Amino acid sequence: MKSQKQCWRFEGNLLRSARAFVFILWVSFFGGQAPSSLFAAGGNHTITIDGTNDFAADEDVPGTSGSTWYFTWDAANFYFAVNASDVNSGSSTKWVLLYLDADPRQNTFSGNGTALGQNYNTQHPGLPFNADYHLRWKADNTFTDLMSWNGSSWVGGNNSGVQAFQSGTFVEYKIPRANLGSPAQVYVCGAMINEQGGVESTFFLAPQSNGP
Questions:
Q1: Is residue 81 included in any domain, yes or no?
Q2: ∠ CA(144), CA(22), CA(122), 5° rounding?
Q3: Distance (Å, rounded) from C-alpha 105 to C-alpha 203?
Q4: What confidence tens digit (pLDDT) does each residue in 54-88 have?
Q5: Would 132 be classed as within a structural domain?
Q6: Structural domains of the chain, count
Q7: Residue 58 three-state SS
Q8: How many contiguous H segments (helices) and E segments (strands) does the chain have?
Q9: Is the pLDDT score of 143 beyond 80?
Q10: How far is residue 155's CA from residue 206's CA, in Å, rounded to a whole number?
């Protein structure tokens, strides 16, 4: 399976399950069983967006090249974070990217949204689900943006209350659940990219493998 298909799903009532990864991470804010082909991981509690890693031990997801991703939520917000060397690069061409599907289905391409990501120079990723929202953060810490799919293109979304805070190689984010349409579950998929011409690349994907 190609690397761009490696994403996840969280499940709220399986917070302490043994860790395994398949293709999609599901976040279920109100419980309910995940489909049998998908694994659930993570936890739920409030995160203070201050650059200090206060995610719980079961809320981390190992990514490629030694990166670590983190996911959790509370009644009002969805939180995620990345710990990776290029987070601290200060580069204006490197981005942390996250795509979210706010109406996840067993058939991941049957819901609303699009399976094509936002263009970054010549990079136009294919996604493993139909995404409705796209959070992007530039590694020079000058730009954070929550985009939404309007049926034909990626456009600026509701950025009210969206926060990012970077400290060294760690950066964390808060997205109000209302900005995502207050979904009960989401699919998520993340990576870092470099959009600089001649050295374009996608890296720090998570999960780091397709199986347990």
A1: yes
A2: 45
A3: 27
A4: 999 888 888 889 999 999 899 899 999 999 999 99
A5: yes
A6: 1
A7: helix
A8: 0, 15
A9: yes
A10: 25
Hey, is 10 helix, strand or coil? coil
What pLDDT is stored for residue 30 in this prediction? Answer: 43
Q: What is the pLDDT of residue 208?
A: 61
Q: How far apart are CA 115 and CA 135, in angstroms?
A: 15
Q: Contact at 8 Å (CB) between 59 and 206?
A: no
| Domain membership flag for residue 72 | yes
Residue 212: inside a domain: no
Distance CA(207)–CA(63), nearest Å, equals 5
DSSP letters spanning 131-196: ESEEEEEETTSS-EEEEEE-SSSEEE---TT-EEEEETTEEEEEEEGGGGT--SEEEEEEEEEE--
Give me the domain span that covers residue 152: 3-206
The CATH number given to whatever domain includes residue 13 is 2.60.40
pTM (predicted TM-score): 0.84
Amino acid at residue number 84:
A
pLDDT (tens digit per residue) in 146-193: 999 999 999 999 999 999 999 999 999 999 999 999 988 888 889 999
Q: How far apart are CA 114 and CA 129, in angstroms?
A: 7
CA distance 186 to 133: 10
Specify the amino acid at residue 47. I
In this structure, what is the dihedral angle of CA atoms 52, 55, 57, 60, given to the nearest 10 degrees? -100
pLDDT confidence of residue 17 = 25
Strand partners, 78: 73, 175
